[in-house]
Amino acid sequence: MTSDWRFVQLVAGSYLDQGLTQRYAADPRAVLAEFGLELAENEPIPDLDGAAAPTVVNDKLTGIDAAIVPGYCWICWKSQSRPELLAA
């Protein structure tokens, strides 16, 4: 389940919404159902801790467009190197 994109959304949402985290702690099965996820009765409740969540990889990205460089603005790079990409 932890590799399902809906669970990844739940984990991300839990970082942004403390109420979601509290509701998950109180009734995880109900919150999972809100995200369209169901657990078998004997299946353990997955942890929302980001460290326990898998790494999400989009292997369709390539080159500089896929690079995440701290402090580097992708839009600034595009506007300088390929301004036609920013044209409306």
List keywords for this structure.
4 helices, single chain, mainly alpha, 88 residues, 0% strand
| Helical content class | 40-55%
How is the biggest beta sheet arranged? Answer: none
Radius of gyration computed on alpha carbons: 18 Å
Mean pLDDT, as a whole number?
74
Work out the oligomeric state of the chains in this entry.
Answer: single chain
What general outline do the C-alpha atoms trace? globular
Spell out the helices and strands N to C.
HHHH
Q: Alpha-carbon distance between the termini?
A: 40 Å
Could you name the ranges where pLDDT drops below 50 across 5 or more consecutive residues?
none
Total of helices: 4
Q: Report strand %.
A: under 5%
Give a count of the beta strands, DSSP E runs of length 2 or more.
0
Protein structure class: mainly alpha
Task: Characterise this structure.
- By secondary structure, this protein is an all-alpha fold.
- Helices cover 41% and strands 0% of the residues.
- The chain has 4 helices and no strands.
- Helix 2 (18-26) crosses helix 3 (28-34).
- The termini are far apart.
- The relative contact order is 0.13.
